[in-house]
Amino acid sequence: MFDYMMSKNQMKIRDEVRELVKWVPRQMILDMDLDKIKFPKEFLREAGRRNLMGCRYPKKWGGRDMDWVTTCMIMEEVGTLGYEFACVFGVGAELVCDAIILHGTDEQKEKYVKPLLKGELFAAECLTEPRGGSDFFGATTKAEDKGDFFLLNGQKRFIVGAEGADFFLVYARTNPDAKPQESITCFIVDRGPGVEVKYLYGL
Ligand SMILES: Cc1cc2nc3c(=O)[nH]c(=O)nc-3n(C[C@H](O)[C@H](O)[C@H](O)COP(=O)(O)OP(=O)(O)OC[C@H]3O[C@@H](n4cnc5c(N)ncnc54)[C@H](O)[C@@H]3O)c2cc1C
Predict the structure, then answer these.
(1) What are the residue boundaries of the structural domains of the chain, listed by start?
(2) Which residue is closest in CA terms to ligand 1's atom 41?
(3) ipTM over 0.95
(4) Among 15, 56, 83, 186, which residue's Cβ finds the most Cβ atoms within 10 Å?
(5) What confidence tens digit (pLDDT) does each residue in 19-45 have?
(6) CATH number 3.40.50.300 is the correct assignment for the domain at 3-120
(7) Distance 146 CA to ligand 1 centre (A)
(8) Phi, psi (5° rounding) for residue 177?
C-alpha cells in the first residue's frame, strides 16, 4: 500500500509486519509449497506474539482498534510470502473472529478470539461442501436441535487450515422450511471425537 494512504501509526504497523515477513524461514515457505508443512502453526504463533492478527478488533479482545485499511495493508504484506500464508493468516483472525466479534457473546470472545489472536488457538471456517460453494444457502449440512445440544451431520470441503484447527465455524441448516437467509445457523464446533478431518490436497 502506498505511504500516502497510511497514517504514521499504520506505517509503523506495516514495518512490524515486514519484520514478521522477514522472520519467516525460507525453508518454511519451501516446505509449505511441497506440502511438508500442511498448516504453519509456528508462523501464526509468531504473528500472535507480535500482536499482528485481527488488528481492527477492540484492544479488549486482543486487537489494536485499527480499521479495514490497516487489515488490507497487513494482508498485502503477508501475501508477499505467498497466498497460502495470507490465506491461513486471514481465515482464523479475519473470517472466524469477525463472525464471533460481530455476533458472538463476550464469553465466546474470551474463549476463542483472545487466544486465537495471541496465536495460541487455531480455527477454520466451514462453509463450502462437496456439492459446491457458491450456493451458500443450498448447504446440506444439518443441525438438529436435541434440547440441550445440537447434532450436526454433514461434510465440508476446501477448508483452509482444517488440519490444524482447534475449533471450526460451521454453517449448517437448522430450518429447511425457512427463507434461505433464515434457514442457516453458524456453530462453533470444537475439535472432538465427532469431527473427522481428511487432507485431500493442498490448496
Ligand atoms: C484458495 C481457496 C481457499 C478456500 N478456503 C475455504 C475455506 O476456508 N472455507 C470454505 O468454506 N471454503 C473455502 N473455499 C471454497 C470457496 O468458498 C469455494 O470455492 C467458492 O465458494 C466457490 O465454490 P465452488 O468452488 O464449489 O464452485 P461452484 O459453486 O461449484 O461453482 C463453479 C462455477 O460455477 C459458477 N456458478 C455457480 N453458481 C452459479 C450460478 N447460480 N449462476 C452462474 N454461475 C454460477 C461459479 O461462478 C463457478 O465459476 C476456498 C476456495 C479456495 C480456492
Answers:
(1) 3-120, 125-190
(2) 135
(3) no
(4) 56
(5) 999 999 999 999 999 989 989 999 999
(6) no
(7) 31
(8) -90, -10
